[in-house]
Design goal:
60s Ribosomal Protein L30, Chain: A; 56% helix; alpha+beta; single chain; globular; 12% strand; 242 residues
Length: 242
């Protein structure tokens, strides 16, 4: 006969074992989710980068744009081109000409591979300001916070005007309703004020060892692709169920 209390001890041990198994399953799914994000992020970015490098080779060579390794597109004043008149939201005629040439090529690459397109969560049009303080007429206080808010309004306004310009182009106007809806969903406009200034080598001053802001380069507009792992996660779940 088993000693008194043995069954209770066995029951407690089984409960602990079940709990550990459940925790292992949770950690496994966390690990799988992380791996999925890394795989998705790497393959989609590399494929888009390679295609953009070919299609936009002339613009890259002429320094009209800078193509980042993550597929981001950066327009700045590094080549002397004026993107906006000071304190104005409307792109200059020069910048509009560059955008009119760039946008069909860019969207052509994005939509050319439906697999990549399904993994894209959004395409952000980002407005960025330099580190110089910016005050409007009527500002009663001349503080860093007021300057940040002014630059926030300006950078947001500029990115919104670039998005509006996109929606006035044939790549948007001349497509069917399904493609319009896709573009409506993907393209967004956001302003970052001067929170993401860059240095002379084009890296964020906040996270790089070179903390000196390059104001000319920091005044810029970027197109940035944000990916989503939802489709890959679903595929992984379906594979496990089968």
């Amino acid at each position: 006969m088993a000693p008194f209390g043995r069954n209770t001890e066995d029951s407690n041990w089984i409960s602990i074992a079940d709990m550990m198994t459940a925790l292992m399953v949770i950690f496994m799914f966390i690990a799988i989710n992380f791996i999925v994000q890394v795989v998705e992020h790497t393959f989609v970015q590399e494929d888009i980068y390679n295609k953009l490098q070919v299609v936009l080779s002339e613009e890259i060579e002429n320094q009209e744009i800078k193509l980042g390794p993550d597929g981001s597109i950066r327009f700045s004043m590094n080549s002397g081109q004026e993107l906006f008149v000071e304190a104005e939201c409307e792109p200059t005629p020069e910048f509009k000409k560059i955008l009119a040439n760039f946008l069909p090529k860019y969207w052509g690459v994005i939509k050319s591979d439906t697999n990549n397109l399904d993994y894209i969560k959004e395409i952000r049009i980002e407005g960025h300001a330099d580190s110089k303080r910016y005050f409007k007429n009527g500002d009663t206080a001349k503080t860093a916070e007021i300057s940040f808010r002014n630059n926030l309004d300006l950078s947001q306004c500029r990115s919104a005007h670039v998005l509006r310009f996109l929606r006035e182009q044939p790549i948007y106007l001349d497509v069917d309703s399904a493609e319009k809806e896709r573009m409506d969903f993907l393209f967004t406009a956001i302003g970052f004020s001067n929170s993401r200034t860059i240095n002379e080598v084009g890296l964020y001053t906040y996270i790089d060892s070179l903390k000196v802001v390059h104001d000319t380069l920091s005044r810029r507009v970027e197109f940035r692709i944000v990916t989503s792992n939802e489709k890959l996660t679903k595929q992984l779940i379906d594979f496990n169920e089968n």
